[in-house]
Specification:
By secondary structure, the chain is mainly beta. The chain is built from one helix and eleven strands; from the N terminus they run βββββββββαββ. Strands 2, 4, 5, 6, 9, 10 and 11 form a seven-stranded mixed sheet that branches. A hairpin with a 4-residue loop joins strand 7 and strand 8. The radius of gyration is 13 Å and the shape is globular.
Amino acid sequence: QVQLVESGGGLVQSGGSLRLSCAASGRTLSNYAMGWFRQVPGRDREFVASISKSGGITYYRDSVKGRFTVSTDNVENTGYLQMNTLKPEDTAVYYCAASSLIGGTAYYTAIMPRKYDYWGQGTQVTVSS
């Protein structure tokens, strides 16, 4: 099993940047597809971005395209979500997740929370206007 620990959340002004980290332990992250999701109170958890097991294929929700970048570092065994030009509507708890069930190359499975079997604890991102 892999354990995921997130860090990097915080309070930032609109237009600012944050980089979320997802440190993996127990297993090598390259054995998993990785996804990032976010959730606000009262709403379902929603897909933000994903990267395939090979690292060669990435997907983003439309509202973050061109602003967010997902990546993994196999040496550090850590996943990252670089978030630029943040907007108040990006405010949420962000979760990283790893999947042993999918390779992350197919969009319609990469965006499904239920396809991910390991989750971080979540980190709060708050963007002030």
